[in-house]
Amino acid sequence: MTSKKSEFGDSLLEGLQEALAWKRGEIALETINIDPMPPERIKEIRKRYARSTKDFERRFGIPAATMNNWEQGRRKPDPAGRLLLKVIEESPDAVEKALRAA
User: Fold this and answer.
1) Alpha helices, H only, the chain
2) CA angle, residues 5, 7, 10, in degrees to nearest 5
3) Which residue among 15, 26, 37, 65 is the one 20 to 30 A from 58 at the CA level?
4) Which DSSP state fits 73?
5) CA-to-CA distance for 11 and 37, rounded, in angstroms?
6) Rounded distance, CA 97 to CA 64, Å?
């Protein structure tokens, strides 16, 4: 058990040292660009499956106010929101099924 704790501690320390080196500007870390899902695409997804944001809320559980904010560009969906929209886009029945089961 001690070796696992030691390995974890070593990994944790290594990660913290890397974070500090990045903060000091000594190293560059790999970045990943995530599809920002522009408001137009969000609106397109919503319109494909519902006439209004209220209908979309009833069907998929995302509050109408949230959809309005995303569609108008006042707010951007977080990674979980983008993922949910992507799953709705690819497999709306799966989301409805999961929502009914919840």
Assistant:
1) 2-23, 39-49, 53-60, 64-72, 79-90, 92-101
2) 105
3) 37
4) T
5) 34
6) 20
Of 46, 40, 35, 37, nearest to 72 (Cα)? 40
What is the rounded distance in angstroms from the CA atom of residue 76 to the CA atom of residue 25?
Answer: 29
Q: What is the pLDDT of residues 64-84, one digit of tens each?
A: 999 999 999 999 999 899 999
Amino acid at 32: I
Residue where the block lists tokens 């929209």: 85
Whole-Å CA distances, 34 to 28, 37, 87? 18, 9, 15
Dist CA 46 CA 48 (whole Å): 5
The first and second tokens of residue 92, run together, are 């709306």
pLDDT, tens digit, 9 for 90 and up, residues 24-70? 999 998 877 766 899 999 999 999 999 999 999 999 999 999 999 99
The Cα–Cα gap between 96 and 88 comes to: 9
